[in-house]
Amino acid sequence: MYIPYIFKEVFRRKSRTLTNVLTIAVIITMLISVTAIMSAYTSAIYLPFKDVDSDIILQKSDNTTDLTSDIRLPFGRGTFNDDEVIKISSLNHVRDVSGSLILWNFNKTGFTSIEGIDVDSAVGKKLSSWTNQGRFITGGDDGKAVLESHFAKFNRMKVGDNISLGSNVFKITGILKIGEGSPIFSSNVYIKSSEAQSISGIKEYDQIYLKVDDLSNEEAVKEDVSQINPRINAVSGNYISASIKNVVDIYGTFYWVGVGVMALVTVLVLFKVNALALLERRRDIAILQSVGWTKRDITRQILFETSLQTMLGFVLGAIASLAVIAFIGTVTIQGTSTGLESTPTTITMPLTLSPVVVAEYFGLTIVISLLVSYLLTNKIAAVKPSENLRSL
After folding, report:
1. What is the per-residue DSSP string for 248-317?
2. Are the CB atoms for 236 and 210 separated by under 8 Å?
């Protein structure tokens, strides 16, 4: 009884149907696209820490940098003594601690950054997983090194070659490609921490990676660290977000507010579209009443039509959202340096269309459209045919 009439009404009144469908499509395109952008910005803030399997990175400022050695600590960088490491490891909410020794190597061929890591630590295992040529160093290796892929390509080095670090020569066992978002933490050369300490004469770490039990405890951990030594700098997703200021204010702190506003706009627009469409159909409803259609029949008919138009509009909007997301491609945010150096941090995050978000918005749109149509249709269908005709 309803199906033929549904399609007849939808396709007979092409102008009205097209208006409804396009209005819904535009709203859905805006809603999904803005949500994708906000999600990308929010995710980009913590992307570097996700990729290095660390929540907080600790560095210590110091003015006693040796400027005479070929291999030295980075400018203004200090080391953590054993007592500080023990205290940091015992802090509440700290789940894992990994230390590394960052060094700068200056020689006649140029500058090289070196990181001595514990190959069995969480950071060492993460770096090992990024090895795409050769193999990563192991605890039993001596005089072995792994290079970052861009550094290796620029210097035309490959697995099996040798690289000089100060007066020491290391054999290259592998090449690794740093994960998305983590080049701000990458070094040119990776060796065992014991060998980094040996070639530099420095027996401590100058960088510590922390994993916390929950990101909500991040600020508490940083506060406790500052109590151990106020010269310790804690770098985290919140640190980067603070340096991004307006971007994070909009896309971080007020993420759900933004989504809520867009959802409210969707509710209002869908209400307006459905209300106007139903008011225009009071004459049709009066005719249906005259030929014996009951209030329930009319309500079901209108709900079916509304569902069909809403689904068409949503599908069109989802397709348009894909086009918008593909056109924009990525979002890029820039903050201050994550370390003691002055190099700005640039983080790029690709835009993606989340199936979960699409499903949630589909459900929201259908519910709103059906609810508005049901309430208005119920009211109009309860009026006598003669009154519906006179209201036109």
Report:
1. HIIIIITHHHHHHHHHHHHHHHHHHHHHHHHHHTHHHHHHHHHTT--HHHHHHHHHHHHHHHHHHHHHHH
2. no
- Tell me how far apart the alpha carbons of residues 147 and 151 are, in angstroms, rounded to a whole number: 7
Residue 94 DSSP one-character state: E
Looking at this protein, which amino acid is placed at residue 134? Answer: G
Task: With respect to residue 123, please indicate whether it lies within any of the assigned structural domains.
Answer: yes
> Which tokens hold the place of 246?
């307006």
The pLDDT mean for the chain works out to: 77
Range of the domain at 87: 63-230
101, burial (CB in 10 Å: exposed 0-12, middle 13-18, buried 19+): buried
The CA-atom distances, in angstroms, between 72 and each of 151, 202, 232, 284 are 20, 9, 19, 85
Q: What is the pLDDT of residues 69-90, one digit of tens each?
A: 778 888 888 899 889 999 999 9
Residue with tokens 């997301």: 325
Structural domain count of the chain: 2
Let me know whether 74 and 223 are in one domain: yes
Could you give the CA distance from residue 283 to residue 298 in angstroms, rounded to a whole number?
13
pTM for this model (two decimals): 0.54
Do 32 and 74 fall within a single domain?
no
